[in-house]
Fold this protein.
Amino acid sequence: MAQAAIELIGINKSFGAVRANRDINLEIARGTIHGIVGENGAGKSTLMSILYGFYQADSGEIRVGGQPASIKTPNDAIALGIGMVHQHFMLVDNFSVLENIILGAESDALLKRSIAKARSELERLEREYGLEVDPDAIVEELPVGLQQRVEILKALYRGAEILILDEPTGVLTPAEADHLFRILKQLKEQGKTVVLITHKLREIMAITDTVSVMRQGTMVATRETRKTTVEELAELMVGRRVLLRVEKGEAAAGGVKLAVKNLTVKDTRGVTMVDDISFDIRAGEIVGIAGVAGNGQSELLEAISGIRRAVSGSVMLDGKPIDLTGAADPGELRDRGLAHVPEDRHHVGLVLAFEENENSILGYHDDPRYLKGPFLNIDAIRDDAKDKIAKYDIRPADCRLKTANFSGGNQQKIVLAREMEQDPGVLIVGQPTRGVDVGAIEFIHKRLIAMRDQGKAVLVVSVELDEIRSLSDRILVMFAGRIVGERGPETTEGELGLLMAGVEHQGAAL
Amino acid sequence: MSTPYAKLPAWADYGLIPVINLFVAFVVAGFVVLLVGENPFRAAVILVEGAFGKGTGIAFTLFYATTFIFTGLSVAVAAHCGLFNIGTEGQAYIAGLGIAVVCLAFDSVLPWWLTFPLAIVASAVVGALWALIPAYLQAKRGSHIVITTIMFNFIAASIMVFLLVGPLKPAGSQAPQTRNFLAGAELPKLNWIIELFGAKIRSAPLNITFLLALIMAFLVWLLIWRTKLGYEMRTYGHSPKAARYAGISETRIIITAMMISGALAGMMALNPVMGDQHNVAIDFVSGAGFVGIAVALMGRLHPVGIVLAAILFGMLYQGGAELAFEMPAISRDMIVIIQGLVILFAGALEHMFRPYVQALFASFSPRSVGMEAVKGKGA
C-alpha cells in the first residue's frame, strides 16, 4: 500500500456529553479515493472538521505525510495541503470565478496583480485536471455543477494535495455527478488524495478505492471497496440488516383525488417557477416528481398546499376547487383532508424551539381535541404526542424535549406522524428523507406505501432519484418549471437523468 | 454538529446567567465610581440600603417596579410574536389621556373602586389603539414596526404636549398638567403591607396598581403558554413560515399581539397618574417604556423574570436617587450610567457568558444540559 497521506490516531471529540468521535483511527493512503460513509450524526462531519481545523480534537494525533501535525485553524490545514469542498458552497455569488479563487489568498496588495497571477495559474490547473470554467464568469450565473468546480479549483489553487469533499453530489444531476467523478479520478491519477464523505452507497461503490464506515461516533470498519457490497456497508452503517429497496405490491389506483390543471406559479421576484403544469393523482397511488432542486418543485408544493399563491390554473381536491388566489388558507385545506409534509422541516414544518408535543399539533391547533375553550388542553396534547411517539418510534421518547434536540430522522417522523395521523385523503410530501438516516428512511418509505395501500393519494417530490424510483407508481420529471416527461417506475436512471437535465428523450411522449 | 451546545437547566438559564451578568455590570459600574473618586463598596451599600433599607425605600422601589412590570410585559408579549415594540413609551403616554378623561369625568361622582376599573379599561383601550396603527402598517404594508413605533412615540409626545398646555389645562394654571383629581380617582396605597412587617413609612406612592401588575404578569403567562392565541403568537415569533404553513393569519396575529402589548403599556399609566400624582402631567412616563425593553430582555421574556427584573430596576431608580443625595460626586447622570451598564450587560450582552456557563455545566453534569438525547441514537 502507498504511503499514508493522513493518519488519524485515537481521535476523541465530545460536545458536552455527546461523544461525536470516539477513539478514531484512520489511515488514508496517498493517491487514493477514500470514502467515508455513515448515518447523519455518526461523526463524519466532525471528524473532517477536526482535520480541517474547524474543531480541535480533545485527544489524539493527526499525522500528515507521516509528520505529526497541529491543525488549529483552516489556515493550518491549507498550509499542510488539505483542501475542503463544503456541502454548501462558500462562494461570493456576485464575484467572478477568478475573484472567488483568490479570495483570502491574494498575493499582492493590489488586486490587479493578484488576479493576473492567478489567471495563469488557473489556466494551468484547468488544463491539467479537465476543470474548465470561464474565469471571468460571475459565480451566481453558473450552474451548480460549475460552482462546485470553482470550489475544487479554489482548493487546488491553494496547493491542496488532499481534497475533502462533503456530500458533493447532493445538488447535482446524475450527469453532473458523473462528470465530477471523472474529475476526481483524474485528480487521483495526478497523485492527489481524495476523501469523499457521502451517504450514497452507490457513489462509494462507483469511485472509491477504500471505504470506512462510521457509526455513532466510532469507526466500525474499513474495507477495500471492490471486496465489499452495498448490503454489507448498509448493515455496517446501521448496525442491522436494512431493506434498501422498499417492497410494495401493485397499486390499486382509484378515482382522481387531486387534479392540477394549467398551474402557473411565480416566485417573489416574478420569475415563472411553475409553468403551465397539469397532472392528476388518484386514490391509492404514489406519484413521484423527480428533478434537480430548483426546477419549480418547491413552488409547486407550496401552491398546492396553499402557502404560495398561483398566477393561473386550477387545483381540484376531491372535485372541488382550491382557492389559489392568495387567500388560500392552509388550515382550510387541512380540514378538507390535504396534508402536507414540507420540504423544509426546520423552518416550515416544525418550530425547532418548541417542545415536541407543541409541534405535534402545529397546523391542527384549531382542533377541538386539543383545546378547552380558548385554552390549550395540555394533557390531551401531551397524551396525543406520546401516542404518536410510540406509534412512529420517535426517539428519544420524550414529548417535552425541545424539537431542535431530536435527530433529523426523528424530526421528520414528528412531522410525518402529525400529518399522517390526521388520516388525510391526499398527502403531499417534499423531500421525505432529506437529512434522514438510513434506518429511518426505511421506516418512512414503509409508512408512505402503507398510506397508499389505504387508498390515499400520495405526491412525493424528491431530488433523490433512487427514492422516486422505489416509491412511485408513476414518475413525473420536472425541468425548468415544466413536466418534461411521465415514466413508469421501471425507467432507468439514465433516462430519467437525461429528462432531469432537460434533454428531451427521442420520442418522449408528454 | 451544528448545535454543539444544548440548553441549560431552567434555573441556570433564568437565574444564574442574569446574576452573572448583573455582577459584571456592577463590577464595571464600581470602576466608574472609583474613577470619580468615591468608594464603590460604600456606594453599593448606599444604593442597596436606599432601596431596601427602610420601609419608605422599599415602597418606592416597588412603586417604580410596578411601572416597569407593565412596560416589561408589554415588550415581552410583542417579542413572543417576533415583534419589537419600541413604542411602549408612547402607548403609555397617550393612555394617560384615556385615564384623564375617565378620572376628570367621574372623580366627583364615583368612588375609587368604580373609577379604577373604568380607568383600567380606558388606559388599555387607548394604549391598544395607539399600537394598532403601527401593527396595521406592519401587517398590511410591511412598514417596519421598529421604525413606526418610534415615530409614534414622538407623535404621542406632541399630542400630549398640545393637550396639556391647551385643552386639558385648567384655566389660569401655569403648570402643563390637568387639574388634580378628587378622591374618587385616588387609588389606595399599599404601604400598610410593608408596615405589617414592622417597617415605618413616611409617605410613599406604592399603591394598588402593584397588585394589578402582578395579576397581569400571571395573565400574560397564561396567555403565552396556555392559550391557543399564545401558541399562535409563539409560532409566528419563532418562524413566520411555519405560521403560514399552520394556517395562522399573519395580519390577525400581528395586530392582536401588538394590541395586547399596547394595552399592557397603557395600563402602566395608571400607576403614576392615579396612584401618585393624581393628575396627568407632561412627560409622566419619563423613559419607563424604554426601561421596559431592558426589563423584558433581562427577564428572558418570562413574567416571573420580568417581575424580578422590574424590582431590580426599581431598586436602581430608588437606590440611585439616594446615592446621588448621599454622594455629591455621583450625580444623577452617574446613576444613568450605572443603569446603562446593567442594560448593556443584562440586555445587549445577555448571551456573552452563556457559552462558558454551558461548557461548565456540560463538563460537570452532562445530563443536565439534555445532551444525551441529541445524537448517536439514530432513529
About this structure: Chain B has 16 helices and no strands. Chain B has two domains: 7-38+327-367, 54-315. The two ends of chain B are 17 Å apart (CA to CA). The longest helix of chain B spans residues 112-141.
